[in-house]
Fold:
Amino acid sequence: MTGRILGIAGPTVAVDLPGLRLYDLVQVGESRLIGEAVRLEPGRAILQVYEDTRGLAVGEPAVSLGRPLTVQLGPGLLSGMYDGLQRPLERLARLTGPFIATGASPSPLDPELRCRFTSERKPGDVVRTGDCLGELHEGRFRHPVLAQVSGTIAAIAQGEVNPAQGVGLMADGSGIAACTVWPVRHPRPCLKKLSPTLPLVTGQRAIDFLFPMARGGTAIFPGGFGTGKTILEQNIAKFASVDVVVYVGCGERGNEMAELLEEFAGLSDPWSNRPLMERTVVIANTSNMPVAAREASIYTAVAMAEYYRDLGCHVLLLADSISRWAEALREISASLEEMPGEESYPTYLSSRLAAFFERAGTVRTLNGRTGSLSMILSVSPPGGDFTEPVTQACLRTAGAFFMLDTSLAHRRHFPAINWFQSYSLYTADMVRHFSGEVSGEWGELRGRCQDLLQREETLREVAEIVGVEGLQDADRLLMRLAERIREEFLCQNAYGDDAFSPPERTVALIRELVERYDAALARLKEGALPDELPSTEAG
Structure:
């Protein structure tokens, strides 16, 4: 279908294009910019263009592509860096230079990639739609090749192939595709959703010990400017116990994304000792890119994450930050002149976020495997106000809440997770797992740690009135221990050896602190003077 441009208002373009469907992609103008139909009206359609519309003119052609925004899925995604439309940025840099040229759209998958294909079928076999025909080998990943139509196999490859060219032919002349295309706004199907039972180890003691995260769970950590959201997300991306990490820089500064890529290139995965980028996909949609592409970026990322989930992998999706996505949604809504909701966000903000969170989970895939997709999203509330709409909408659906405290961040406490305001709905199951697999003392030590921190907070209020010297000896000892728990256990160096703490080390550290406290308390009960108490200093 071909039409013409009727009007242009920033990134919003009105076109005369009969037969267009909602969310269909359209190429507009002589420069073939990509846009998406976001509203259909009598006699015209409203498009949100993913690229800069400077240079467009009324009357230029508009051509429907007949499909919604899709991603290409298959071997070659890992170690890649893409924008919100899944355009490969490294290949774009070689083709067009450091700035993305309008209309440039190379294939997301490397057309020169070669993989070993192991066939499970032979010519003459009759197959049905969805049957597995074989597997493509990409390192330790096995990509199943499924029959797209029912019929008889005429020819099928064995050995090294180019996935972009397919792996064989059917008797009706159709090719057997090795890669698949999927619309980003549609969740990939599964046989069944399962309850999350295994922990997602992040290496951050404040999370793993106090507020554990589950594989297949969802979490947010809101925080004001300077509270360490980006550093925390990057640390989790480095050390999380997952097979694949999909990291989305949604509306973040370009220098932060450049630092992340430079650092990740030289790091090893602590779980496999392989280069970290081998398990990482980066979606870089920086703040200077069009808002429509920013709004699409998290859908592009989650569709790619679901693909690896369906391979039987444990996948972690990190978005920094979901607030920038919501702001893009607000800007798009304003350009469409929709009725605004609270703080001018669209009234459907909560439902959009809830639908996105629902794509996380542990699932039984269509081929009988078990995979999980976990989500950890940072939120940037303006002025650190957690009552703003994005934070509140996320709170209604997220399973864990890690509140980043500005006062802790100013004291250089990392991660600045407030241990009184944060929570996790997965705690009971995860504590049961750690108690069985790591240490039987896990639950007891966790309870004592929380109790000591709570009692110390109460004593701090008393000490502000009567002074520390006015407290009893046992209370001063408790405050000294709680200070060590904060500074030596909950606080970690994001750039040192302590940046990653496995569960065994975590429980050993808190056990040592509690045992030192119990020994000192026993000495105190025996009549020791405060000056004779054994020091709780390390060593």
Confidence is low (pLDDT under 50) at residues 531-539. The longest strand covers residues 370-379. Residues 442-532 form a domain with the Bovine Mitochondrial F1-ATPase, ATP Synthase Beta Chain; Chain D, domain3 fold (CATH 1.10.1140.10).
